[in-house]
Design a protein that fits this description.
- This protein has 342 residues and is of the alpha+beta class.
- The protein has two domains: 238 residues, no CATH class; 78 residues, no CATH class.
- The protein is 34% helix and 37% strand.
- It is built from ten helices and 15 strands.
- It is elongated, with a radius of gyration of 23 Å.
- The two termini are 32 Å apart.
């Protein structure tokens, strides 16, 4: 069984199985010549890359960039109660509503008159209450939570976080001395299939601005899609932010299909004040941003063929990978010809 964050994310993951099923059906009826498949490979390689990347990243970027910005000043008396509540890990219902508004509160908490608080401090001294986050309730009680981010006694943002297996909200100081907070957003999970991204935000001029959305972990195993893949990035250090990425891909001919990509690399990110983002130095790594997007679990085969065009051409010269690559191209061409999508 697969669990999804939202309808749009469910549709993206469902498209993998639709593509897999439809290409299997079409494979029985249409077999293109090797020349046609090589021409198809060449034609996809000539397509402009950015529109393909934008399409693949649209859903994740939409969630990442559209968390709610707020500008709510908490009155001094309520702020003092909140600080005491963060220490006690609970706060009375009246004060919670005064600070956070008319939020949904579990009937059990209403009966008891107290609401548990999940408190995360980003200060060196957690007693400072300069930069911190609060979830009214247990952040780990379900697959998602609502976190309110504070700058002093002002609420500057509210994030709906679908963490799936428990919130891991972390932080560090960037090169400019400002606080960066980050967590993992889940887009779907199941047996042999899951997908998480890292979301990074920075405290900047009384706002919490989005600065980097990068793939954290993706897994797609036989027989969910027409490619088998694995990708995992881990934080090696934070100043500058440095990720180690480990990844592989294979065609989904069988459970034992050989991997035609099996590698790891390091990507370092630098703060760009002009764009107010963390920018990956992909030129000095073994993987490009476009190639990372091919590990997203959605219908992105045209992007994959474009981003890995030279590799696929080399596959055609390899006795082990030639036929699986032709089979894959045949599947994709069948699907996109049938659905008028290429």
């Amino acid at each position: 069984m697969i669990s999804f964050n939202s309808t749009s994310q469910k549709n993206n993951l469902d498209s993998l199985q639709v593509l897999k099923d439809s290409t299997n059906e079409n494979k029985k009826s249409i077999q293109y010549t090797e020349q046609q498949l090589e021409m198809f490979l060449d034609s996809i390689g000539k397509l402009p890359l950015k529109p393909l990347m934008d399409k693949a990243s649209f859903m994740t970027d939409s969630i990442f960039e559209n968390q709610q910005q707020l500008d709510i000043l908490v009155k001094d008396s309520d702020f003092e109660k909140l600080k005491r509540g963060c220490y006690a890990e609970q706060l009375d219902v009246k004060t919670v509503k005064a600070i956070f508004g008319d939020i949904k509160i579990d009937s059990t908490y209403l009966k008891n008159g107290m609401i548990p608080l999940t408190f995360v401090s980003f200060d060196k001294n957690k007693n400072d209450f300069k930069e911190f986050a609060v979830c009214p309730g247990y952040a780990d009680a379900g697959g998602s939570c609502k976190m309110y981010f504070f700058s002093g006694n002002k609420i500057i943002a509210k994030h709906n976080i679908y963490h799936r297996y428990g919130l891991k909200l972390k932080h560090y100081k960037d090169i400019d001395g400002r606080t960066v907070v980050y967590y993992k957003e889940n887009y779907g999970s199941g047996s042999g299939i899951w997908w998480f991204n890292f979301y990074f935000y920075k405290y900047y001029d009384n706002q919490l601005i989005p600065i980097l959305n990068e793939l954290e972990n993706a897994n797609l195993q036989f027989p969910w899609g027409i490619r088998v893949l694995w990708f995992e990035s881990t934080i090696q250090k934070t100043n500058p932010l440095t990720l180690k990425m480990v990844y592989y891909q294979a065609f989904s001919d069988s459970e034992e299909s050989p991997k035609f990509i099996n590698d790891s690399t390091i990507v370092q990110y630098t703060w760009d004040e002009k764009t107010k983002t963390l920018v990956g130095n992909y030129d000095k790594s073994k993987i490009s941003k476009a190639q990372i997007l091919t590990y997203y679990l959605e219908d992105n085969e045209i992007l994959f063929i474009n981003a890995y065009n030279e590799l696929l051409k080399n596959n055609l010269k390899d006795s082990i990978f030639r036929q699986p690559t032709l089979n894959y191209l045949n599947d994709v061409k069948n699907y996109y010809e049938t659905n008028n999508q290429n």
